[in-house]
Amino acid sequence: MKAIIYIVLFYFTFPLWANVSNEEQKLIATIDQNTEQALSLLEKIVNINSGTDNIQGVFDVGEVLKAEFEALGFKSEWKNPPEDMHRAGTLFLTRQGNQGKKLLLIAHLDTVFPKNSLFQTFSREGNLAKGPGVSDDKGGIVLLLYALKALNAQGLLDNTTITVALVGDEENSGKPTSISRAALKEAANGMDITLDFEPNGDANSVAIARRGTAQWEIVSQGIEEHSSLIFKPHIGFGAIFELTRVLNEAREQLSTQQYATFNPGVIIGGTEGQIDKTHHASGYGKTNVIAQTARAQGDMRFISDEQKQWIQNTMLTIVAQSLVKTSSTITFVEGMPPMPETAENKKLLDLYSKVSTDLGYPPVSAIAPDFSGGADISYVANITPANLSRLGPVGSGHHSVNESMDIKSFNINTKRAAVLIYRLIK
Ligand SMILES: [Zn+2]
Q: What is the SS3 string spanning the chain?
């Protein structure tokens, strides 16, 4: 006869002043028990290269995770962009129910490190985990997965509606984004709340607003003539003076608006001047010839669609006031939409901050939008009524070979995410 001994382990890893329910205490204990297992899954997926261009690698990382989510009762589906976009698909993991808030949870499978990068492997040094994508965003994915695992261990995911979107091309989205982000937008339809698990530079802040981006090009034309004739009324000022007038007025008028930016990144002018698709400029001119053409390219940022419109209108007015015998045009290329700060986002932040203080951690505040770059949540921020961004682990050195993740923050933010999700789906 065999004797089976059950060993029950109690974990008192939350502070004594913690203001949490029994279910929430169990979530915390489960997360502490699973931390090492979570880190070994993170090691496994960091060691699979998934640079955005490595479509097979992105798929392989997704397949490892697919099995993990399916074990929690999620249904999986890859949605792939058209082949000529040369991007991996997005893996959607869904479950349907009718209890609590309906959640869309976003993270991404790809990294900025290509297949031939020298930075390919996971390593650990004390409280730091290092490796390509270790916090941006594979740490965010594993954090989200282990928060859901802890919920599932108590049956708390039953009868809830949750979609997890693991995007395959966040770092360099397929263009046009109207096609590459169509499936993500569709997944947001009918959802109440979107949370993203991008990493964070700060332990106690998240983003409730992000600026949108667009690109622009200004092309100026003048009369090509001998330089001795410049300033004459019938010859005018040439293309280079005209373009610099436009740029200087842009600086004067746009730099006074909070959150607005307008940055010339490349400029060329002369008798000829071209800027190719990769933003390499080429051209020539002569010191004794008035410039016939000049062009500049750059990007702009804005906190709302209204501000974007204001920048565009201001620029159209500026380019229309050409110097004598010159002309300019400006064209805009769509980038990422803004995620404006809303009362609902603020409420969600308050809820998250309450979770944090209930767990015995510091309150959480909002990152200034100027310091929060673009992310995929911006594409759905006008679809789901409430949005919170950067719930992933604390990390540093993102997009560089110094990328690291703070393991303690990984554990804390997994607990914060699990309790937040629990309170939303209850
Ligand atoms: Zn990211």
A: CCCCCCCCCCCCCCCCCCCCCHHHHHHHHHHHHHHHHHHHHHHHHHCCCCECCCHHHHHHHHHHHHHHHHCCCCEEEEECCCHHHCCCCEEEEEECCCEEEEEEEEEECCECCCCCCCCCCCEEECCEEECCCCCCCHHHHHHHHHHHHHHHHCCCCCCEEEEEEEECCCCCCCCCHHHHCHHHHHHHCCCCEEEECCCECCCCEEECCECEEEEEEEEEECCCCEHHHCCCCCCCCHHHHHHHHHHHHHHHHHCCCCCCEEEEEEEEEECEEEECCCCCEEEECCCCECCCEEEEEEEEEECCHHHHHHHHHHHHHHHHCCCCCCEEEEEEEECCCCECCCHHHHHHHHHHHHHHHHCCCCCCEECCHHHCCCCHHHHCCCCCCEEEECCCCEEECCCCCCCEEEHHHHHHHHHHHHHHHHHHHC
